[in-house]
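seq:
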Amino acid sequence: MKISLTPRRCDDTLTVEKNGDVLTINGVAFDFSGLPEGATILAGNVPCIWIWGDVERVGGDLHINLALPHGSEPAECVAFPALLDNPPDGILDLPFSPYSTTLEELTEGGRNITTTRYEWRTAPVTTTEFIADSQPEPENEESANVDA
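struct:
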């Protein structure tokens, strides 16, 4: 199977699982195992917004083009994705732009802010920052004596 990816500006997510000639796209299975050598399914005849263009079987390989969603500033790996040439069965390793998640946890004396940054084909990096509760500034001796 040869899967081309075409970048598409949208905020949707895409998950694709491959099992032989069956692609499960965002939970919906599309079985192309019955497509014979040299045959083509014309663009638009597969009811899936993620499949762009014709689906063909050439040289025994299924050729398919999928839309690859991305945000307003895609990473280079998303803007110029490589061909997925005979990917293994399982969930496809689709490129994505870096993003971060943040978790705030209240603790004694302040709060912990944990940020995890995700980048394609890189282990997530997590950092935690402790932010102390604001303490009133101590009065100095001169201001303490004014009230006396």
